[in-house]
Amino acid sequence: MSSDSAEPPVRIPIDTSSRRWSEGYKEKAIRKTMENPWVPLGTLVTAGALVMAAVRLRQGDSRKFQVWLRFRVAFQAFTIFAILGGLYKYGQGTSRRIRELWSK
C-alpha cells in the first residue's frame, strides 16, 4: 500500500484554556471522583472484600473465604460496569464538545 493514497489524520482542536491542562493530580482526582463516584466506591469495596477474604483464609475458615471471594468478583464486575458507564457518558460529552469546537 502506498503512502500517497493514505488520508491525513483528522485534527481535533484542543481547547488549551480548559482547566484540564492546568490542574494538578489532587484536583484531577477530585474532579474524576465527582464525575463518576461509583468507580472509587467500587474499588474500595472490592479491596475490602479481598482483605476480608485474606483474613478468613488466615483464620482457616474456608467457607467464608469462598463467600468473600465471590463478593470480590461481584464488586469487581460492578466496578467494571461503572467504568464502562463513565466511558460511555464521557464519550457522549466529548463528541458534543468536538462538534461545538468544529462549528466555531
TrEMBL record:
One cellular component (GO) term of this entry: mitochondrial membrane
Cell compartment(s), UniProt: Mitochondrion membrane
Keyword entries, A-Z: Membrane, Transmembrane, Transmembrane helix
Domain HIG1: 10-101
Alphabetized PROSITE patterns for the sequence: HIG1 (PS51503)
TM regions (residue ranges): 38-57, 69-88
Gene3D superfamilies according to UniProt: 6.10.140.1320
GO terms under biological process: mitochondrial respirasome assembly
Database matches in Pfam families: HIG_1_N
Protein's name according to its UniProt entry: HIG1 domain-containing protein
